[in-house]
Amino acid sequence: MANKADDKMSRLVSLCKRRGFIYQSSEIYGGLNSCWDYGPLGSELKRNIKTFWWEAMTNRRDDVEGLDAAILMHPAVWKTSGHVDEFTDPLVDCKTCKSRFRGDELKDKTRCPVCGNQTLTESRQFNLMFKTFMGPVEDDTSIVYLRPETAQGIYVNFLNVKNSARQKIPFGIAQIGKAFRNEITPGNFIFRTREFEQMEMQYFIHPSEDEKWFEYWKGERWQWYLELGIRKEKLRWHEHGPDELAHYAKKAFDIEYEFPFGWKELEGIHNRTDFDLSRHQDATGKDQRYIDERFKEKFIPYIIETSAGCDRTLLTVLVDAYDEDPSRGEKSTVLRFSPKISPIKAAIFPLVKKDGMPEIAVNIYKILKTQFKVFYDAGGSVGRRYARMDEAGCPYCITIDGQTKEDDTVTIRDRDSMEQTRHKIAELADFLQNAVE
Ligand code: ATP
């Protein structure tokens, strides 16, 4: 079973490289462990996922504002948030084979799972934050951290956003951005990396309404994954038990996805109470309280957080869309992305490179290109061109054939059903618009 899962992942990884979704970082230098680069199709897919999140979480709502905070923040932020003292994982080394493990992930705490020797060190706490220096002098006073989460950038801007956007509680702040964690055991392709992107939203509420808003955001976030096209039966909830709850959280639920390597967290929804704003108020002396007309009181808002990983969502989308369909012949791989996020929305083919077909095809390509990411391909048989587009996850292939000149129609081949239907050229843009909405 494990081997089958490994096979599927390794075939997906090789497809990602071959088709330009994801490459190993610095590959020509032998690669850098746990760092990945997104190629032409991958960067497009990632951008589409981020746009889909941003639209759902901010632009389509009146109560959530966007933010783009700096990666480097005042080092005191991380002291206040608890990251300097508590953002650690237990690190265990094997003295024989030099393998490293997260102590909490070891089933048998006495024996090395790689070489089998009873030569594991005591577990010691390892801080996951990356450090660097600000300015030319490298000493303790110039240490800054690469942020390990985007959330703190939101908390320290709570008052700025509230005042400048004239928002009233309940309201939220959403942000997409890079985060860095010096993970002990990165792996499973882009599932756990040391540099990754988060899509986080912090919703500020009156403490008495925390249950209501927690349930509300659970519902919204679950629905978002369904709208992204993820199969419902591959998603489930996991509630954090008392031993799993982070020190700041009153309640936490993860949305999990069934990857080939098991059920794993995709996103966390957390009730962070007034922990963060209270800590920042205590540390800075800046009043974070909110005056509420409804409740006629001054209070520090509670925060409901929705915290998703962009790269992890992208891996989910890839795994969920990946299919091998033998009915398509030898080249049988197809990525069944939702058209909303597929990197290429349509490919345009002249059936043959003569009889005026390429000219019409190029013309259609140029028109559609102003609205959609489309791709022109005249190379090889139509079957091969379809197969290439199936692997790229392109939902529609538009072919210009002999009939086009007679009645201004083309065929649209649907990636999933493989059916072809005829459409007027003038209706193509509307067809694609409906499909991607
Ligand atoms: P874990 O316990 O697995 O290390 P976490 O519970 O600390 O993770 P959060 O701090 O809740 O994770 O992060 C929120 C989201 O950010 C996660 O659900 C995940 O999608 C993403 N994420 C966190 N760490 C990584 C990582 N190292 N690589 C990729 N994505 C990550």
Which helices and strands, and how do they pair?
Layout: H1 2-18, E1 22-24, E2 36-38, H2 40-59, E3 64-67, H3 75-80, H4 83-86, E4 88-93, E5 100-102, E6 124-127, E7 130-133, E8 143-146, H5 151-155, H6 158-165, E9 171-180, E10 195-205, H7 210-227, E11 235-239, E12 251-259, E13 262-273, H8 275-284, E14 290-292, E15 297-299, E16 302-309, H9 310-321, E17 322-324, E18 333-335, E19 346-350, H10 357-369, E20 374-376, H11 382-392, E21 396-400, H12 404-407, E22 409-414, E23 420-424, H13 428-436
Parallel strand pairs: 3-9, 19-20, 19-21
Antiparallel strand pairs: 1-2, 4-5, 4-6, 7-8, 9-10, 10-16, 11-12, 12-13, 13-16, 14-15, 17-18, 21-22, 22-23
Helix pairs in contact: 2-9
The structure holds adenosine-5'-triphosphate (ATP).
Adenosine-5'-triphosphate is lined by residues 149, 181, 183, 192-193, 196, 198, 265-268, 307-309, 311-312.
Question: What brief labels describe this structure?
Answer:
23 strands; binds adenosine-5'-triphosphate; 28% strand; alpha+beta; 437 residues
Spatial shape: globular
- Low-pLDDT stretches: none
Report the helical percentage: 25-40%
Ligands, deduplicated: adenosine-5'-triphosphate
SS element count, helices: 13
Beta-strand percentage range:
25-35%
Sheet with most strands: 7 strands, mixed
What's the average pLDDT?
A: 95
Widest sheet, order of strands = 3-9-10-16-13-12-11
The total count of strands amounts to 23
